[in-house]
């Protein structure tokens, strides 16, 4: 069955292969690709193939798919770093969300400070 999509969504186009991205790994349900503006040695975005606007909507609509995102985030950190990682879901414009197709930022590969704001 075709994935849920939203017109003119950048990450729908990336997961469909219609916009190029440096894909790290993918499964039937999620795609992991490098952030175009990395903020850490490893900065990978994990997005479900289905379009959901943010992590709260994903959790409500398809919790198993959210688990797939987390599982793939761990696999990315295992393969590209030491297995330790931060997983960030910016949720809402005030939190810095700019692409409204849910994606977890996998941040890894360095000893990370904690400066949430
Ligand atoms: P947000 O701010 O929504 O949490 O995260 C969006 C992220 O997507 C940003 O870190 C930004 O650098 C990244 N980004 C925006 N456009 C593109 C793109 O065309 N390709 C890739 N690989 N990353 C993008
Ligand atoms: Zn989308």
TrEMBL record:
Q: Which InterPro entries match?
A: Histidine_triad_HIT (IPR001310), HIT-like (IPR011146), HIT-like_sf (IPR036265)
SUPFAM superfamilies xref list? HIT-like
The source's domain of life comes to: Bacteria
- Per the annotation, the residue ranges of the short sequence motif Histidine triad motif are 101-105
Which ranges carry the HIT domain? 10-117
Q: Which PANTHER family match?
A: HISTIDINE TRIAD HIT PROTEIN (PTHR23089)
Which protein are we looking at? Answer: HIT domain-containing protein
What species was this sequence derived from? Actinotalea lenta
The root-end lineage is: Bacteria, Bacillati, Actinomycetota, Actinomycetes, Micrococcales
């Amino acid at each position: 069955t075709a994935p849920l999509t939203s017109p003119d969504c950048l990450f729908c186009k990336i997961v469909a292969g219609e916009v190029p991205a440096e894909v790290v790994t993918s499964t039937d349900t999620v795609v992991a690709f490098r952030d175009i503006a990395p903020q850490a040695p490893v900065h990978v975005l994990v997005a479900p193939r289905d379009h959901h606007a943010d992590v709260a909507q994903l959790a409500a609509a398809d919790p198993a798919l959210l688990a797939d995102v987390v599982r793939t985030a761990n696999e990315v950190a295992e393969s590209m770093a030491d297995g330790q990682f931060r997983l960030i879901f910016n949720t809402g414009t005030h939190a810095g969300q700019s692409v409204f197709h849910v994606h977890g930022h996998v941040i890894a590969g360095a000893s990370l400070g904690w400066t949430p704001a």
